[in-house]
Structure formats: C-alpha cells, structure tokens
Design goal:
homodimer; 337 residues; mainly alpha; Cytochrome Bc1 Complex, Chain D, domain 2; 3% strand
Chain lengths: 337, 337
C-alpha cells in the first residue's frame, strides 16, 4: 500500500515536471517568484520604480479631474476593482461616446508584460499608452494643458512630484503620464499557474494541469505565450472568418496585425475579442480555435482549457483607496461639452 | 517672564474653554472621540453595524454593475477619493444626462449625521436614500430586478450576504441598499475641530479659533449646527434673492424647505449651493450671509470664517480598494441605452 502510494506520488511528480518542461518549451513563462527577478522585467531603468512614484501614479490614475469633464479617470475604463477593465463591449467615454472603432478596453493588469500597447500595438510601453486615452475625444477628452494645469494647481501634487523626482522636476504632460505608466507597471497578478511553473507541483488542480496540457496540445500557445499569455502582434483572421466581423471597423495595424490579449484574469474580463462581442469564455475558446488555428476544439477540450484558464485568476496587489488633493481656485473647471 | 508666559497660557486656555462653551451653547457638537459614543449615533439598531456588512456594503458601493450601463457606481457621484462627491455643478448619470433639476451631488462623508437625506429631505436615512439614485433614470437607471439579479448572479456576493446576515438571508433590493447605507454610516471624518471641542485646546490654530468665533457671532450656526454643521431642513431664500436662482428649477420641498448641507470637508466639495453655481468658498460664505442672514459679511470676516472651515477637513477612514466578484453567465449584460 505504502509502496503503491509512493509510486503514485512519484509518477504524479514526474508528470508535473514533464508538464512544466512542456510549457516552458512551448514558450510559456511564469511571473518570477523572486521580487528582484520580477523588478528586472517590470522596471524601466530610465524611470526606476520607487514607492513615492507608485503612490503618486496611483492618485493620478484615480483622478477624474485629468479628464475634460472631471468625471472620467484611468480607473473608469481600467477598473482595478474589476478585472482591470470595464466589462462592457466597447469603451464609453466623454459625453457617453462609444469607442469609434468599437474597441473593447483591455485590462491594465499585467499589461506591463507586453512590449506593445493598444490593440494595434501603436504604443511601445505603458507610459506612451497613458498619453492616448487622456487626450482621445471619445475617452477623457483632455488637452495636455488641461492635465498640466490641473495637476500643478494643487500644491499637494506639486509637493509629491518634488518628493518623487527631486525639487527641480518639470511637471509636464509627459512626466504625469510617465508616472501613471509607472504605477501601472506594478499591477501584476501572480496566480497558482505561476506557482506551478515556479515549482509548486500541487499549486494547480489536476483538472487545471490537464487543461494546460490541452491548451498546449491544441496550439493555443502559438499566440498566447510568454509571461503575458499573449503576444505583441499577430495576424488575426478578423476580416475573413470572425463571426462578428461587422461590429466595428478595426482591421488591425498597417499589416493587419492585432495584439494578442493576455489570458491572465480572463474569467474577469468578459466580454471577449477586440470588439467585445463574445460573452462566454467557452465560446471564445472554440471561436479562437476555429478562426486562428483552423482547428475544431471539442466541447470537452474547451471545458478543459477553461478549467486551466481559471488558474490564471491572479492575486491582485492590495491597494489602499487613494485620497486625492482638493481642487483649488486655479484648477480647471469641469466641462461637460 | 515666566509669570507673564504662564499668565498668557492661562488666558489662552480660559479663552479656549469659553469658545468651547460658546460653540456648545450655539448648538455645535463634535463627532465623539469615544468609539462607543460614536456607534450610538451612527448605528442603526435594526441593522447593526458589523465588519462583514461594512465590507460587503463597500463592494456594492463601488460596483458599477448595479447600474444599467455597468459603468456607474455610487462612488461615481459620491467619490470617496475626492470629497465624497463629484466636483461638478450638477450630477451626470446614465447617457451623460444631467440631473434634471440641476442639483449638485452632496457629499456622502458624514451624511449619517443628518436625519433627512436629499436636498428636499425626502429620504429619512441613508438606506432609503441609496434606493433613489440606483433607480433614477438620469443616474444609475437600474431596475430593482436588475440589481437583485446582478448581485445574486455572483456566488461570492451570495456567500458574503449569508456570512453577514445568516444563511436564510433574502437578498433583495432593500437588503442590498440597506447594506450600502450601512457602509455609508461608517464614513465619518473627525477633524481638528472635533479634537478642539473634545478638549484638545490647541488642536485648532488661533486663526481657526478666531474664525469659529466669527462663524458663531455672525449667525452661521443658526442653520449650520449640530454634529453635521448642517441641518435637516430649513427655509432657503432660493427663489427670491439667490444670485443663481435661474439655474435649475429646484424650489425645495413642499414647504419650500431645503436641507442645509454639512460644512465638513467643505474645502473639498466645490462647487457650492444646491445647483453648484458657486466655486469660491469665500464667495459662498458672503452669499450665504446676504441671502440667509440678511447680513453683510466683510471680506475680513469671510476670510476668518474660511480659515475656520479649513479646520473641518477631516481624517477619512482608511479604505482598501475593494476587489469585486467576477460576473457570471447570468449577470445582466450592460445596456448603454
């Protein structure tokens, strides 16, 4: 009995090791368990992460006064209480305008692991990305001057910038968005999947391990790879065969390439696909197999993959609700038009 | 020298005691320093406050899925990162609709100290108030069924309701809004003003003490009284002499009475007045003197009162950002129309 049990454990352990090897060979990588290793990946040496910059960036991320209306913050569409997104098909912004291309807001959690941002990959990093929605008319609709004047009108913000960057800091639009991007770099959510790849053999359930194997075997890893379980840019068969090809006019970048979204926390970020037309994760799995892999994914396989994807629900950073500085007489007034 | 100094301190101390007496006689009351005393005031014996109910109420307060669009939560208009309000003249809600009466969103901080809610005092408590904006079409625009189905579609919410209220809890609209109201009861912000009234003689600066004296002497306490430094209902000379009487059609309740808003955290809750037309606190002070007291408040007096009002900037409860349960297949889908 004892021998059988030991043998069973040894086989299970061997199988787990094999699965880790298989995942690694397929290009999957965990969020490093060691903080210095993680910092090497998420830190930008040109603007290194410090606690003061994170706290300031968090305030700016949550501050709706950066928008023209005074009502929309980064957190409105990339809600950190939800999956780091907004849970609607296409982003809704200033004056209730829908994203003109009917694009779904991607999650900000783990976005640091991409080397391109936006669905068409036009921004190279989170700092550059942060400049977009603030100025986009159907989103926060602000000018750079509005943002700069808003922030510099509040002595507390000015003091925090000085404390974070030194007394000679120039508080301009780029510095403000850089600080928001820096905060976003810290929004990583390791899960039992990472624990498993990092050596904790029983961190994932047997069903989740089986699902990971199916995920690899069916070829999902071709696009959903690396730490992000996404990929910067890949051809997306959007125009030819996608069931909801008529919703929105997005055709990818100049080469028809589309950013492959992360699968981390995917159970929390419905609806799916660039135009947010698919609400069921299982349906998304099957559709992706059909469109991208030209493969039939059976109901059983889809369930198995879905089981694995649940292992990607991460541990979110514990954040305190920021308390924002009070507006002053020189803070630009909200404008609803 | 020593004697003069001691005498000076004794005089200062005596003056401080006199000012506390004067404030008390004028009807001003501090937020109690003792937690049991505070609980006696904020607790509703019919639904007593517990940590589990607070945490659940906080999640519901921050959950935009209670709204029809899935984008507007209680925190949108009563933003706890700001002054517990939205910083705009009139509330903006579903489909970017403005409050039809051009009413300004009051702060939720310290709202527990009122015995009527809404500008016309039509709700008796926070629990009843919470039912309003969720269903109002220009606000969250949800039906009771939408709210109930949303909450009960998520097993984590169901489990938390059972943990908070017992396994036989009926999770209906009233129970949900009661839980939100209960969370709001805990949003109190004691300040140096309370410390002063509670016996810490040097908690307020000399200028703030002087301002408090001016505040009492000029008669501001007639309406701004009690713990809230507000009052449930009072006649407001809105139609006759208010400078911005034409903005919005609000005329008070059936008797022309208007709720007197709290002055706590007033430096953070511009714009002022029921229709949010006054952005400068000093202007608001002078206008109020003219409209309500028929008194001229000089520039010097207004500055002095403003100095006192700064002492009402409170210490906000430290809140962790809630992490909301993920939607499920049965969670109602967002509807932008």
């Amino acid at each position: 009995m004892k021998i059988v049990l030991s043998l069973g454990l040894a086989v299970a352990s061997l199988m787990a090791s094999n699965l880790v090897n298989q995942a690694t060979e397929a290009g999957l990588k965990p969020i490093p368990a060691s903080k210095p290793e993680l910092m090497k990946i998420i830190n930008d040496p040109k603007n290194s992460i410090t606690d003061k910059k994170i706290e300031l960036g968090k305030k700016l991320y949550f501050d709706p006064r950066l928008s023209k209306s005074g009502l929309i913050s980064c957190n409105t569409c990339h809600n950190l209480s939800e999956g780091g997104d907004d849970g609607v098909s296409a982003a809704i912004g200033h004056k209730w305008a829908m994203n003109p291309h009917h694009l779904n807001s991607p999650t900000v959690y783990n976005a640091v692991f991409f080397d391109a941002q936006f669905w068409d990959g036009r921004a190279k990093d989170l700092e550059e990305q942060a400049q977009g929605p603030i100025q986009a008319h159907p989103e926060m609709a602000a000018t750079q001057e509005h943002v700069e004047q808003t922030v510099t009108s509040m002595p507390e913000y000015v003091a925090e910038f000085k404390a974070a960057y030194g007394k000679d800091v120039k508080i301009n639009f780029v510095k403000i968005t850089d600080t928001i991007g820096l905060f976003e770099r810290t929004l990583v959510t390791p899960s039992v999947y990472d624990d498993f790849l990092n050596g904790k053999k029983n961190a994932m359930t047997p069903a989740q391990k089986e699902g990971l194997k199916t995920f690899i075997d069916k070829g999902c890893v071709t696009c959903h790879t690396g730490i992000s379980l996404g990929q910067s840019m890949n051809a997306f068969n959007v125009t030819a065969t996608y069931k909801f090809q008529d919703v929105g006019d997005f055709k990818g970048d100049a080469n028809g390439m589309v950013k492959v979204p992360t699968l981390r926390n995917i159970t929390q970020t419905a609806p799916y696909f660039h135009n947010g037309q698919v609400w069921s994760l299982k349906e998304a799995i099957v559709e992706m197999g059909r469109i991208q892999l030209g493969a039939e994914i059976t109901d059983k396989e889809a369930s198995s993959i879905e089981e694995f994807l649940k292992a990607l629900d991460g541990r979110k950073p514990a954040l305190s609700l920021p308390i924002l500085p009070a507006s002053t007489a020189t803070t630009p007034k909200p404008d609803m038009n």
